[in-house]
Specification:
- By secondary structure, the chain is an alpha+beta fold.
- The protein has a domain of about 110 residues: Beta Polymerase, domain 2 (2-Layer Sandwich), CATH 3.30.460.
- It is about 45% helix and about 20% strand.
- The chain is built from 5 helices and 5 strands, in the order ααααββββαβ.
- It has a 5-stranded antiparallel sheet with strand order 4-3-2-1-5.
- β1 and β2 form a beta hairpin.
- It is elongated.
- The chain starts with a helix and ends with a strand.
- About 20% of the residues are buried.
């Protein structure tokens, strides 16, 4: 009891001797902005790493097909039946369908010259196990040649479904994975 009484007396006597710290001006907008920036940087880094791991795992699920698997797939997918005038839309759909079926596929864009004007066209490519890179015209499901200098109008006309009236000489080619 005596110790408690001494503690109370000391506390009463020291009330005036303890001083609180001086107030400091804080720019709360700057503090919040820095906290947001730090959180974004950490979240962005974490999210990027997680995304790369997911893509790596997904890529491992995709297979390199055989030529016969490609032919079977393109006959069954129905992209050539779409009522779409845009070659890029067809190529993108065929690419997405292939990937959804676990098959590696690439969108191929090329620039051509008709002798009077320039244009571009989109097709797809499959890197097969047995025949290497195989190009497919999504509008006709035809396996076609795609190389600098090839007259692509004749390639499009292989099945007779689409026959351009102009010659289309390939000038540049770009592949999108």
């Amino acid at each position: 009891m005596r110790a408690l009484l001494i503690a109370v007396i000391v506390a009463v006597l020291c009330v005036g001797c303890i001083k609180p710290p001086e107030p400091v001006a804080v720019d709360w907008e700057q503090v919040v902005a820095q906290a947001k920036e730090d959180a974004y940087a950490k979240g962005h880094a974490d999210g990027r790493e997680e995304g790369l791991k997911a893509l790596e795992q997904y890529d491992l699920l995709l297979k390199k097909p055989t030529f016969n698997e490609v032919v079977t797939f393109i006959k069954e997918d129905g992209t050539d039946q779409l009522m779409v005038a845009n070659c890029l839309t067809r190529a993108e759909r065929l690419n997405n369908e292939a990937i959804n079926h676990g098959i590696w596929c690439y969108v191929v864009l090329f620039n051509y010259f008709t002798g009077e004007h320039y244009g571009f066209h989109a097709i797809v490519a499959f890197d097969t196990k047995d025949k290497g890179l195989v190009f497919v015209e999504p509008a006709t499901d035809d396996v076609v040649k795609c190389d600098i200098g090839v007259e692509y109008g004749a390639e499009m006309c292989r099945s007779g479904k689409i026959c351009p009236t102009e010659k289309m000489f390939i000038r540049q080619i770009g592949v999108i994975k």
